[in-house]
Recover the amino acids of this structure.
């Protein structure tokens, strides 16, 4: 398939720059059986059935962006992609000239960092401090908003670009379908009889990268870490036995579940995934997907087309543009029933 088959025209003013005033105040486009329904996110409560399992990604966004300088004095921007251990990370480094292996960086005026090497597009960095790197980033870093959000992160973003159930630090981008939920909605879903469980997938910056290859099979997918708890596997098995559905809140939750089931049944544990879901993929776990609207020519749009049907999803995106839905991380949501 050609990458340009997944392109669409999006007016820039439909890209949400700020979240709605309240969590859950967004719109919801419901796609099922070839039909589109214009709803509110609050309608999710009636669309979820008793005994359904809702799977949320409990990753927490870290303050991964830090500014500083090289030994030569040249200014740099560091965006941590992955925390490797208490002191080492993989990161993108933006500078007029790339730092040399063995050189030192000074970040935020106080953090001394050694360049250990290169791993593809990323630099392997070591923070020279006794304190854990996650604590250092929390104190000295900035929240890494997506490239299509044009303002610098502020106090509103620090609260709203984080889910209410964020728990395990490690992501550099939010699992944005989860941003719609507040505690009241989660409790209402439980009261209705839905089971809420969690996975952890640490979202990387690669989630924002468009597919630049002419044909999608030529694209190299970025890798991300995930963990599936046994309690989540057990809940999904019980739902299957009861004839209930598995609802993934976000493409990240879906990618974690489908990756953990690649060998057959769903397996608990930690692993890496570079799964690239495109039309023709046969889904093994997820029946319903809650997701935001994605970038043109992106791997996430391709995943959505695989899940809901290519013609149907591209038509849904045209509908969303025509009806002025808000797009991307702070935008509105879709609820998609899987096409058989």
């Amino acid at each position: 398939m050609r990458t340009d088959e997944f392109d669409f025209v999006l007016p820039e003013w439909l890209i949400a720059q700020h979240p709605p005033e309240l969590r859950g105040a967004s719109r919801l486009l419901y796609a099922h059986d070839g039909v589109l329904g214009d709803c509110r996110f609050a309608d999710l409560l009636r669309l979820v059935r008793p005994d359904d399992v809702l799977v949320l990604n409990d990753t927490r966004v870290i303050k991964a962006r830090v500014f500083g300088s090289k030994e030569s004095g040249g200014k740099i921007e560091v965006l941590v992609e992955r925390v490797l251990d208490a002191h080492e990370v993989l990161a993108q480094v933006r500078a007029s000239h790339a730092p040399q292996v063995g050189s030192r960086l000074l970040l935020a005026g106080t953090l001394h960092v050694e360049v250990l090497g290169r791993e593809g597009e990323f630099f392997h960095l070591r923070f020279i401090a006794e304190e854990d790197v996650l604590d250092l980033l929390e104190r000295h870093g900035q929240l890494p908003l997506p490239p299509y959000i044009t303002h610098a992160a502020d106090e509103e973003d620090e609260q709203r670009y984080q889910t209410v159930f964020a728990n395990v630090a490690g992501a550099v981008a939010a699992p944005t379908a989860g941003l719609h939920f507040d505690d009241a909605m989660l409790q209402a879903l439980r009261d209705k009889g839905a089971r809420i469980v969690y996975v952890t997938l640490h979202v990387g910056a690669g989630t924002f990268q468009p597919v630049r290859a002419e044909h999608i099979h030529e694209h190299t997918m970025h890798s991300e870490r995930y963990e599936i708890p046994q309690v989540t596997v057990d809940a999904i098995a019980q739902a299957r036995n009861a004839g209930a559905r598995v609802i993934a809140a976000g493409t990240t939750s879906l990618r974690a579940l489908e990756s953990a089931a690649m060998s057959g049944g769903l397996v608990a544990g930690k692993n890496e995934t570079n799964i690239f879901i495109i039309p023709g993929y046969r889904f093994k776990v997820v029946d319903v997907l809650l997701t935001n609207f994605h970038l043109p020519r992106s791997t996430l749009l391709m995943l959505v087309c695989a899940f809901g049907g290519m013609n149907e999803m591209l038509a849904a995106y045209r509908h969303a543009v025509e009806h002025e839905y808000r797009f991307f991380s702070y935008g509105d949501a879709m609820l998609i029933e899987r096409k058989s």
Summary: The domain at 65-140 is CATH 2.40.10 (Thrombin, subunit H).
